[in-house]
Each structure stands twice: as C-alpha cells, then as structure tokens.
Amino acid sequence: MAKDNQCDKCTAVCCRYFALPIDTPKDKGDYDDIRWFLCHKDITVFVEKGDWYINIENKCKHLSQKDNRCRIYKKRPRICRYYRHKTCDFVEGEYDYELHFSNDKEMEEYIRKKFDNNVTKKQTSKKKKRKK
Questions:
Q1: Contact 12/68 with Cβ under 8 angstroms?
Q2: Cα–Cα distance between 89 and 120 in angstroms, integer?
C-alpha cells in the first residue's frame, strides 16, 4: 500500500500569503500606522511570541491552479526550500497568536481600549486625589 503523502492533499496554504516582521508599536501613533495597513484588502496583523507581523494574502505566481504544485519546484526560492512538513500550514489546528487583527475596526477598538481607557483612569485618579 502506498504511503499517504501530505503534499498530495495540499491546498498550498503557504503559497497564498507571506508574513513580514514589523516594528513593535510603542505609542498611539504607531498603532494608528498599523491601523492604516489594515485598511487595505487582504491584510492582517498578528503578534506571535511578542513579535509583530503583517500578513499579506497574495498567491505565488508560480503556483499551479490545476494541482496546487509549484511550477518552479527545482528552482524555488530558499524560503520555500527550507519549509518543513512539521510546520506545514496544512496541518489542522489554530495558530496561537497573542493578538490578531483582521481589519482597521479591530485595531481602532484595541487602540481605544489601550490608550483612551488609561486616560479615563488617570483622570479619575486625579479627581480622587483632589478630594483629599
């Protein structure tokens, strides 16, 4: 009996996006810059192990639509050559992101909670101190 080949079932998930590290935001302006990324189609931002990434959904131009195989397999880029089955996106399960933003509204809400709630708390603290 032939051994099941993971690649035969593959839908080429890894060939349909790429993720690049971005600077960790430090202030409200940095977060708003990330919100700008999220205003664009097929962009997400995630945090994994404390590092921030922009995820760009954009299919590789060398991916065969017929069978999801690489048309330049023997000359594929180094990143593709170093890809391993044990880290394959085809394997079931969710990513364990610390944060994941799919659109600008999610980031806007995060900014509001992260920064505006702190302002409210600081103003409340100042009012309590004044009463003494």
A1: yes
A2: 42
Distance CA 100, CA 25 (A): 14
Q: Which two tokens stand for residue 131?
A: 């009463």
- How far apart CA 30 and CA 37 sit, in angstroms, is 11
Q: Look up the pTM and report it.
A: 0.78
pLDDT in tens, 80-123: 998 887 777 766 666 789 999 999 999 999 999 999 875 545 55
Distance CA 67, CA 54 (A): 28
Determine contact, residues 87/36, Cβ cutoff 8 Å.
Answer: no
- The helix (run of H) or strand (run of E) holding residue 44 is strand 43-48
Non-local (6+) Cβ contacts of 15 within 8 A are 59, 60, 63, 68, 70
Intra-chain end-to-end CA distance of the chain, in Å: 82
Rounded distance between C-alpha atoms, residue 1 and residue 14, angstroms: 29
